[in-house]
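Kindly draft a polypeptide, keeping tokens residue-aligned:

***
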Amino acid sequence: MSQPDMNELLAQAAQMQADLQKAQDEILATTVEGTAGNGLVKVTMTGGAEVKSIEIDPQVVDPEDVETLQDLVLGAFQDGHQKAGDLAQQKLGPLSQGMQGMPGM
């Protein structure tokens, strides 16, 4: 059984690292929008889950029912966070599968 070519392995590892960095940069540069209450509350965040903005439709602002608004904001954040996670899986998933085929990984 022949030994793997170290130069080839190093080149593959360098390419995978470059691809991984590119995917991570794309994730951080992409924005996702989480919504709740049929769009009455929107949270815009980066793929890295950094919240950029929150929009609240005035019709859900009821001083007598702050709990519903809190639930909607939480729901929109959770929706956005899930979408950010899905984006990361979409971008990084193929790269992690490629690493499984490398010897020693």
Notes: The CA atoms of residues 17 and 95 lie 9 Å apart.
